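Handout, section B. The chain below has 280 residues.
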Amino acid sequence: MGLNAARGRQSPGSREMSSRVREAQKAFEKDDLEASKRAHAEKRTEEEAFHRRTVGKYIGDFVFGALDGIITTFAVVAGVAGASLHSSVVLILGFANLLGDGCSMALGSYLSTKSEQQYGERERKREEWEIERIPELEREEIKQIYRKKGFQGEDLERAAQILTSNKKTWVDTMMLEELNIVREEKSPRMSGLATLAAFTTVGFVPLLAYVAALLAPGLKPVTFPIAVGTTFITIFIAGSARSYVTGKRWWKAGIEMTLVGGLAALAAYAVGYLLGGLAR
């Protein structure tokens, strides 16, 4: 069980959305022209730029790994609670989910990032080869691309001349305009580690009450209600963090993921309740 299907593929641009762009979006939503001007004019510090180039690249992996982790683990908890099984079953299945599904998610993130980069590198080499071997056809493709953008006559010829005068610019243009591939400097290994760290740490929240009950047996009668409360608070917080990736308003993103988590938990609880007799 996971959120990969609902999560979809995030473009590199959305995953690395700068704070300036987010401020411009907020200004648009509020119809605030002055805020929009400030967002366009404001210069960012080198420290923030470094943060976006490094930590910011993996925010998407961390956020979605956290949401996958907490929702899948809570689904296990809800299923066991619905079947009225012993709390030890929650811990066994819960930790099995954290380790097994967490590793699967991390490897998936690693392989996905690596495959995208390998594909981009292969296509870039192909474009470079074509520019070297058949420049006249590649130059005509540039013209076709910019003709569709409205360039005509001398303006079209001038644009094509400028873009094809530098090989790197020429290749970059073909990669973006023809293939819709944006070069992304991102470590597949760090992407996988960010997913694993988020999945296991945030995914542990639904199990926290059951672990605490081992040390304080008096909590056993209320472990599930405590798990429900802590889980949905955490899902809302983690869901709100999606606004960094998607650009949605934080409270809308939080409510949306809380509803998704609730539906997943309800389905798991119902299955546990209906099939609980099989375990007795």
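Note. The CA atoms of residues 51 and 79 lie 40 Å apart. Compare this with the example in section A.
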